[in-house]
Amino acid sequence: MALTMNTETLSTARDRRARLTRDAVGVLVILAVAVLGYLLFPNNLALLTRITAIALLVLSLDLVTGYCGVATLGHAALFGAGAYGAGIAAAHFGITDPIAMLAVGVVAGALAGLVSGAVVLRAHGLPQLVLSIAIIHLAHEAANKASGWTGGSDGLAGIMPDAVFGLYPFDLWGRTAYVFGIVLLIAAFVILRQIVRSPFGMLCRGIKQDPLRVRAMGASVHGTLIRMYAISGAVAGAGGALNALSTQVVGLDSLSFTLSAEALVMLVLGGTGSLYGALIGTLSFLWFEDVVSAANPFHWLTIVGALLIAVVLFAPKGLYGSLAALLERRGRTDR
Amino acid sequence: MQTVFSIGVDALAYGMVLFVISIGLSVTMGLMRVVNLAHGAFAMIGGYIASYAARDLGLAYAFAVLLAVFGTILIAIPVERLLYRRIYGQPELTQVLMTIGITFCVIGIANYVFGPTLKTIPTPESLRAPVSLGFRTVSAHRLFVIACGAAVALGLWYFIERTAFGVKLRASVDNAAMAAALGVKTEVVYAVSFAVAVGLAAFGGVVGAELLPIEPYYALRYMVTFLVVVSVGGAGSIPGALAACLLLGAIDTTGRYLMPEFGEFFFYLAVIAIVWIFPRGLAGRAK
């Protein structure tokens, strides 16, 4: 902690430029993967858009779990809030401009983040996990019950988004939705890189390592975490809104425990505490799911389970974390 | 009145099933500090073994129950040796992932071997007949379940409070390092309590099969309920777990009877309220 603070205060202009270059490389890599996906699977853009939306959810989970150390199995509540927010705005209030729907989703997600943050942060350890599970089930039941607004178990249909900027209508092939999603993901990535590196982001990491010491330093642990939860909710809400825009249906599955658990699995598979880890985890998990469940739907769950056990045993830092550690070790021996 | 009475009996039976299954989870969680999401999977394995023994092999119910308990323990021992040993003392997130992984594997294998249908465990004639209590008749099975729960609670209480092993167990729960320094073989304590916990889970899974039907997604569907009970009761406390099971069983059953369209809404609302007020559980102690 002290070390990172020192390097932070001593950071020179060259450091900053190096970091900006690294961010630019990150953006370019995302773009390259996106273009590659577009060229390789032109008939499967719906899947790619879903991966993008889930990637936003996993990024947002990384903010609270990876950076703040809050274990939660109820993060889909924020995603679902964004999806239902955008969907209800379109279906009941006639707000069909995609950007406006996105904004509604972001705000709804941030509000859901505030509420669930206030509840989840009440406890620690196992009770915290249980609170988060209770939240997602409560949200699921509430959405199921309020079928006048949400369509209940039939799902919320009748979402007809306008063309983006009045120029690019959402086509049958999902090209517009895909490009929209990738632009959204890159924007979120760039913003989040700035946030996690800011003094605020550093404070969050400090809380993860030692909340007592942070409190002794005079910072508010609870307030900081709640703020991070709201930011995380905004990102997850954006993902939910993207999902609503691209599929034009919002189902109860966007508020499910399964989605929450899968998001956590993806995050840990990729590696917590790193935005790249979240992206890599989402991409590899969903791609793997698509391949395996198409090949043999019956063994899908067994294989995911075995994969999880293997990750815990052999790559406890996740794919990205283990790779980074390996490269670092190699770099050190070379020197 | 009739409704109140039948809600009461069902709530008590449901609470007792929850108690039998989750008390083992509570003890191991208090002892080994492992967030074990795979506990429901062991209850499910017990249910499957009993169903196979009683229905397909035609064995007697009591024998099927015994077979389920010991069969599940036999299956659990290598799992504990190979997988759980690695996650003792690890961060919670790691434990959650490992045990979710085990749960997924068990579900997938159960789905493959036994198929996705519900499995029934045929009960003997004497448990199927209604029993007259003088002023009401009650299903004998419900009474049997309640009696099992009470027996388990009493037996565990005796085991933990009155035997030498119970002393070692409580010492290890309070401070494992100090207990080990005083000559308690904590490894043995861990292994025995894990086996007992798994055996109880299997027992509860078999006995409660009429209330929590055995199917491949059993492990995932009720996993949350068991975790909730343990955390509401406070990990490692038998009275706490009993109180939590009876309370939550009552809330859930009443909600289902009176407002079935709300599903588990009230159950989870109560959970949030209780954990909000008692962040360490009903009988939780400060760290």
Automatic annotation (TrEMBL), chain A:
InterPro entries: ABC_transp_permease (IPR001851), LivM-like (IPR043428). Pfam families: BPD_transp_2. One of its GO terms (cellular component) is plasma membrane. It is found in: Cell membrane. One of its GO terms (molecular function) is branched-chain amino acid transmembrane transporter activity. It is a multi-pass membrane protein. It comes from the Bacteria. The chain crosses the membrane at residues 20-41, 47-64, 76-95, 101-121, 177-196, 229-252, 264-288, 300-327. Keywords: Cell membrane, Membrane, Transmembrane, Transmembrane helix. The keyword Transmembrane applies. This is Amino acid/amide ABC transporter membrane protein 2 (HAAT family).
UniProtKB/TrEMBL annotation, chain B:
It comes from Shinella granuli. It comes from the Bacteria. One of its GO terms (biological process) is amino acid transport. It is a multi-pass membrane protein. GO terms for molecular function: transmembrane transporter activity. This is Amino acid/amide ABC transporter membrane protein 1 (HAAT family). Signal peptide: none annotated. The chain crosses the membrane at residues 6-27, 34-54, 60-84, 96-114, 140-160, 188-212, 224-250, 262-279. GO terms for cellular component: plasma membrane. Keywords: Amino-acid transport, Cell membrane, Membrane, Transmembrane, Transmembrane helix, Transport. Belongs to the binding-protein-dependent transport system permease family. LivHM subfamily. InterPro entries: ABC_transp_permease, BCAA_transport_permease. The keyword Cell inner membrane does not apply. Its main location: membrane.
